[in-house]
Amino acid sequence: MSETESQRSTDHDSPWKNALETHFAEFSALLFPAIHQQVDWSKGYTPLDKELQQITVEAESGRRYADKLVKVYANDGTETWVLIHVEVQGEPEDAFAERMYTYQYRLRDRYGIDVVSIAVLADTRESFRPTTFYYERWGCEVAFTFPMAKLIDWEAQWEALEASDNVFALVVMAQLRAKRLTDGNARTQAKIKLVRLMFERNYSREQIQQLFIVIDWMLQLPYVLEPTFRQAVYEIQEAKKMPYINTFERHGIEKGLLQGREEGALIGERRFLTKLLHKRFGELPDWAQQRIAEADETQLERWADDVLEAHSLDTLLGSH
User: What band does 9 get if pLDDT is binned at 50, 70 and 90?
Assistant: First the structure.
């Protein structure tokens, strides 16, 4: 696998954010069942991307983790914010627990709301299991503890994941395969198996389309093997008589660019690129929207062509 393909294969930030936003209830039920039971899910939940962005502006743009902030209501009717840190770095971070504490107190200080911080560790180092940030000096002491889920612990429960009716089990399986498998052929076969399992569970069209995007981004393949995967997906759909995935992201990009040109050059292409970036990276900051508004047709097309391989908005649109 080339260096570029290796970088692509380990870029799990965006699919995690996508999965957390669309399947937050299932995520908590699978990985944090005790917390899940405390939430009144009948009232729904609300992602708070702008609020989280306000307290993470000083974080490095090249960070290799995904953060998500979600508003929920407890069973007693009170509003609570759930801060989720998903560690997807190739190497664990010594300052991870301190960062958990920093984001916790920044949110509480800025918004005056109860914040429940939880961590999902997707790395493969067995010994990296931070759950507490602590310091003490001269009688001043701080101890901050947070719940943590280590995904590699689920490898011993693989059969349970395969049998689970929780849609987030597929996300965990895709992440584990992405972390463990480096051989292109092995990754392709694992990805095909996950897609087949997704169709066998008879999910709705919307669920399958959402999960497919997450799995497709998380378990990226060398370009030479993508036709093999694409053909396998078509055959699975034909066998199941579920033509839910009619195209792949790259073909969708090409179609969207064509539609943009037909709509009237820049306006249509800007609209399409904005929609594509929102789907890939979440809500766009002001600087990114400004960059798109000022770009010419050639630049818009280049960004659209490169969006699937980009690690972040900064690497795609340029440092701001």
Answer: very low
SS3 of 144, please?
Answer: strand
CA distance 179 to 173: 10
| Measured torsion, CA atoms of residues 63, 65, 66, 71, in degrees rounded to the nearest 10 | -100
Q: Phi and psi at residue 235, in whole multiples of 5°?
A: -70, -40
CA distances in angstroms from 314 to 189, 227, 277, 310, listed in the order given: 32, 30, 12, 9
25 vs 16, higher pLDDT = 25
| Pair of tokens at residue 44 | 């729904």
Sign of CA dihedral 219, 225, 229, 230: positive
Q: By three-state DSSP, how is residue 63 classified?
A: coil
Comparing CA positions, the residue from 17, 209, 207 lying closest to residue 120 is 17
The DSSP result for 178-203, as a single string, is: HHH--SHHHHHHHHHHHHHHHHHTT-
Q: How many residues does the chain have?
A: 320
Which of 197, 212, 222 is closest to 244 using CA atoms?
A: 212
**Which SS3 state, helix, strand or coil, does residue 47 take?**
strand
Average pLDDT over residues 120-130: 91
End-to-end CA distance of the chain: 31
d(CA 219, CA 11): 9
Distance CA(261)–CA(46), nearest Å, equals 35
State what percent of residues in the chain have pLDDT above 70: 82
Tell me the longest C-alpha to C-alpha distance in the chain.
69
The whole-angstrom separation of Cα 188 and Cα 17 is 23
CA–CA dist 21, 66 (Å, integer):
12
> Among the residues of 1-141, which ranges form H helices?
3-9, 13-22, 24-31, 33-36, 49-55, 96-111
Dig out the tokens for 254 from the structure: 């090409």
Strand partners, 74: 39
